Amino acid sequence: MANEPLGSAAKPVTSRWPSLFALVALGGLYAALPSSLLLGGPRWLLLAIVSVLAVPLVVTHYKGAHETNQLIGFVLNGVVTTTMIISLALLIRALPLHLEQPRQLLQSAAALWVSNILVFASWYWRLDAGGPHKRARRPDHSKGAFLFPQMTLPPERKHAAGFTEWVPNFVDYLFLAFNTSTAFSPTDVPVLSRWAKVLMMLQSMISLLVIALLAARAVNIL
């Protein structure tokens, strides 16, 4: 940490907070689901797990234990991803059984759709180019699983636009995840890595289930 440039050390500090807020929001969305779509236990359980794991996540970041920080982040992402997929499966099961009222189906579908965006934005942000810490240590972002428009600019245009030391932060990956869930494609950000293509296919499939099957069914029976 002491040998890193001040500029590169400061980048991950500001970019990590939105990702942490996204995980807390996921816990809140899970708590808002009907009890029939919860895995078990109190509805605030996921929010409590996120809050507990957020403490060592912040501590390891400020202490410079980046490998431990990355590991805790993977565990946290894995927990919220698992609960989202289980809730989606329970919602699909409840659909033909008419276990939920139409309004609850719409609200549940909306909550799971937003959760899908936040979950995969967190994965893209944590996995791309070695993670946020490794990305911030580089002078600029020129290699990764996604080809952002800023990466394609020639050096003179990068300098004119102020992108000479550009590094993607959480909002860039959130925008990518939002486009994947709405347009079922990355739009202006081509995908280069195989693991990223697999994740984006999974995200699009979940979004398609929520929008085309669950929300449409709920609207039809209103």
TrEMBL record:
Keywords attached to this entry: Membrane, Transmembrane, Transmembrane helix
S-adenosyl-L-methionine as UniProt keyword: no
Transmembrane segments: 20-39, 44-62, 74-93, 105-125, 195-216
Protein name: DUF1345 domain-containing protein
